[in-house]
Design goal:
Number of domains of chain A: 3
Number of strands of chain B: 17
Largest interface: A-B, 41 and 67 residues
Largest sheet of chain A: 2 strands, antiparallel
Shape of chain A: elongated
Mean pLDDT of chain A: 85
Oligomer: heterodimer
Distance between the termini of chain A: 98 Å
Number of helices of chain B: 15
Distance between the termini of chain B: 90 Å
Structural class of chain A: mainly alpha
CATH topology of one domain in chain B: Rossmann fold
CATH architecture of the largest domain in chain A: Orthogonal Bundle
Number of strands of chain A: 4
Strand order of the largest sheet of chain A: 1-4
Low-confidence stretches of chain B: none
Order of helices and strands of chain A: HHHHHEHEEE
Helix content of chain B: 40-55%
Shape of chain B: elongated
Strand content of chain B: 5-15%
């Protein structure tokens, strides 16, 4: 056998190549099974960039389905809560050109939070069922209230309310959340002088 | 002589300190109202423990610590609580925060308080608690609760205590005057802190060499103690915590680390004084030394000011001229911020009220384009690249900003100070820092929202499937009942559902544990044996007096009973074997 192979170089190399091919093929096949990824990692990464308001303004039932759809080639400008920042981030991730927000799905607005006018609440629990992140507390015939920290401002509780007692109010800047605005946004007279470079 | 290290960069702005040092520390006439903010510098609000209308005495605690980083608040004078509501405070935002307003009664009567002259015998945790209850927060400007800094948990240890008396900002002389007049008390305060920290190996007082009188006073009182007074060269910003640590010890603080991580604690000298008053004299932090200076004031002087005194009140006392004033600044000219209203209270961190004239600081002209001169990089004490940071800040490139260590910027303002194009560099950095922190917070919020949304989906699915099974079983029973009513017979169990159910039932019975099965078989065996005996009895009766038919019938019954007993015994034996 060995003699035959030594004599016949073509056969030997053929056999060796087939053997190697089979071995590596087997290894790759095993690895593909062993390290299989069930969901597309791109979807997760896109989902990370979306604001998770779960508002459905994009026409999908939540942020993840929209992320899935983007991965499948849908437009990236359907998310008003995320606004241009999100569009830019997704465009950068997918290496495509950033486009302006599609006005059809809504406008980029200030972040709001739902407030229930508690005197008027009749305790119907309809808003509780509508809230995608379980941020409303209350039970039947008892007053409901919004957990401010958890509210994503998705607007979904406003429509179901039969007595129209939910207001979407913009988030107020308190002394704790305030930070210095960039110089483009402020009149220069409100900052200290030397930090602006004007000393006597 | 101690070896000193030199920090990179730094600037030498005109120090303008002499004008406020001509007079000793003055006393301020008692104001009619005092406004005491409840918030600390770290987003936490103390809990008011008094109600409107309550009479309070000087030094009485009116708000308790709530959360780790809030600071207790005390009444600065006796009087009545007249309101608890949001008020504008001395803050760059000009926003309001909950405050307690006290209308003073003029008596200025102290509350009886506990003093601890023998602090050496108190445990460190107890000392920290006394300091916390006295409402002491860093008085150099940041306002970090001192007790939190001093409360060292077991794993960490402090080998160097650094007292910051550099006071490197121009105009401010509050610490200088405090040292000159009250050095003895300060040294006692250091001793209290030494006890709280279990005697660190070295105690260093860093002080800039432009304060010869203060250095002399400290050196006199430090004779015979382990405390070392270290005069450092005058250069702004040598008073930054990181900078001072480097100058004195040559150790560089890692990015985003605290001094405690390298075994050090850094305290402002005014804080040390406040700690002495709190522990030894039982006086909580209700006053501080504040410099009132600037050419728009006729008198430039340091005052011992009650916390909560309005800036208006202080300015009136010093002949403030609004016409002459171009800008009213709290803190120094390098790092301070402009006040939008004079009706704000002095807080624990107000080192200086600076009313500059138009000559001192003319109104700013618009910034010119960057000419890439590189002066900013030369003066940066943190060795950053201010120019690069500026471009990235303008482009809102958060990743690159962080890669260029934006968060190591101490916002000292040296770069803006030297910029020939008058670009407000620090403002750009502050804005970008805020944007990045907000983006981070939003990211955490988004992931929390995602988690809540997903767990809600799981919950809803579970409820749905439960409902579905319930509905199915109800449907089945109602169908069965219907069929039974119609046909009068038990229903045929032929639907796929039923077959599955029956199969499930069989599997269930099979799953009975061997012990249970054994017990069941034993019971069956006993019952079978009893039946066998009865059958034998009855057969005997029938054999005596009965027809042939009856005899055969009973014989068959007996045979059946016998078989049952045998079968059960066999199964039992099988189970026992298993």
């Amino acid at each position: 056998m060995i003699n035959l192979l030594l004599d016949n170089v073509v056969l030997a190399s053929l056999l060796a190549l087939i053997g190697l091919g089979g071995m590596f093929g087997g290894l790759l096949g095993y690895a593909a099974e062993k390290f299989k990824i069930n969901s597309d990692p791109v979807i997760d990464t896109i989902d990370e960039l979306l604001p998770q308001t779960q508002c459905g303004q994009c026409g999908f039932p939540g942020c993840r389905p929209y992320a899935q759809s983007i991965a499948d080639g849908d437009a990236i400008n359907k998310c008003p809560p995320g606004g241009q920042t999100t569009i830019n981030a997704i465009a950068k991730l997918l290496d495509i050109t950033a486009v302006p927000l599609d006005e059809e799905h809504g406008q980029e607005e200030l972040r709001t939070i739902a407030y229930i006018r508690e005197d008027e609440c009749i305790g119907c629990t309809k808003c509780i069922q509508a809230c995608p992140v379980d941020a409303i507390l209350g039970s039947a015939k008892l007053m409901h209230t919004v957990i401010e920290k958890e509210c994503t401002g998705c607007d979904l509780c406003v429509d179901p309310c039969p007595v129209d007692c939910i207001d979407m109010l913009p988030v107020k800047t308190s002394i704790d959340t305030w930070y210095w605005p960039s110089p483009e946004n402020i009149p220069p007279s409100t900052t200290s002088a030397y930090t602006e470079g004007h000393a006597s | 002589m101690r070896h000193l290290w030199e920090t990179p960069g730094g600037v030498h702005p005109p120090d303008n300190k002499a004008q406020s040092q001509t007079m000793s520390i003055g006393q301020v006439p008692l104001p009619k109202t005092l406004i005491l903010p409840l918030n600390s510098a770290f987003d936490e609000v103390a809990k008011a423990s008094v109600r409107i209308g309550d009479r309070v005495l000087k030094g009485q605690k009116i708000a308790d610590i709530q959360g780790k980083l809030s600071v207790a608040v005390h009444a600065s004078s006796s009087g009545f609580v007249t309101s608890i509501e949001p008020r504008t405070i001395a803050h760059p935002s000009g926003l309001s925060t909950p405050c307690i307003e006290i209308t003073t009664d003029g008596e200025d009567r102290w509350i009886e308080s506990k003093t601890y002259p023998h602090y050496q015998h108190i445990d460190p945790p107890k000392l920290c608690d006394i300091i916390a209850q006295a409402g002491i927060a860093g008085m150099g400007g940041a306002g970090f609760p001192s007790a939190v800094k001093l409360a060292i948990d077991g794993e960490k240890s402090v080998d160097t205590l650094i007292i910051n008396a550099t006071e490197c900002e121009p105009y401010i002389t509050a610490d200088d005057m405090l040292i000159r007049e009250r050095a003895a008390e300060i040294i006692k305060g250091i001793d209290v802190i030494n006890c709280a920290l279990n005697k660190p190996k070295a105690v260093l007082i860093g002080i800039e060499n432009n304060k010869p009188d203060a250095i002399k006073a400290l050196q006199e009182h430090c004779k015979g103690t382990q405390i070392e007074v270290v005069p450092v060269p005058t250069k702004y910003p040598s008073g930054g915590e990181k900078q001072l640590i480097y100058i004195l010890t040559g150790k560089e603080l890692p990015s985003e680390a605290l001094p405690i991580n390298i075994g050090m604690i850094c305290l402002n000298i005014a804080t040390v004084f406040a700690i002495k008053r709190a522990v030894i004299d039982g006086q909580p932090l209700i006053s501080r030394i504040t410099t009132i200076t600037g050419q728009a004031c006729d008198i430039n002087r340091n005052y011992e000011v009650l916390i909560g005194t309005s800036v208006e009140h202080l300015l009136k006392l010093n002949g403030f001229n609004r016409e002459r004033c171009s800008r009213l600044i709290v803190g120094g000219p390098m790092m301070g911020f402009t006040l939008s209203s004079t009706n704000v209270p002095v807080t624990k961190t107000s080192t200086c009220i600076l009313a500059v004239s138009h000559q001192e600081m003319p109104d700013s002209s618009p910034p010119q384009p960057c000419i890439r001169c590189g002066l900013c990089a030369e003066v940066c004490p943190a060795s950053l690249l201010p120019q690069q940071l500026y471009w990235y800040a303008k482009a809102a490139d958060h990743e690159r900003l962080q890669a260029h260590h934006l968060f190591d910027c101490i916002e000292c303002g040296a770069c803006s100070y030297v910029c020939p194009s008058k670009i407000p560099l620090v403002q750009h950095y502050r804005g970008s820092k805020g944007d990045i922190l907000t983006a981070r917070a939003e990211k955490t919020m988004a992931s929390k929202a995602r988690e809540r949304f997903e767990s809600r989906a799981v919950r809803l699915e579970k409820i749905d499937s439960q409902r579905e099974t319930k509905r199915e079983s109800r449907k089945l029973t109602s169908n069965n009942a219907e069929q039974q009513r119609v046909s009068g017979k038990p229903p045929l169990t032929t639907s796929a559902e039923d077959i599955i159910k029956a199969a499930q039932l069989r599997v269930q019975t099979k799953k009975i544990s061997p012990e249970k099965q054994k017990a069941k078989l034993e019971r069956t065996l006993i019952a079978a044996q009893i039946r066998l005996e009865e059958a034998q009895q009855r057969l005997a009766d029938v054999l005596e007096s009965g027809t042939v038919d009856q005899q055969t019938q009973h014989k068959a019954t007996l045979e059946g009973a016998k078989q049952k007993v045998d079968k059960t015994q066999q199964r039992l034996a099988k189970i026992k074997l298993q």
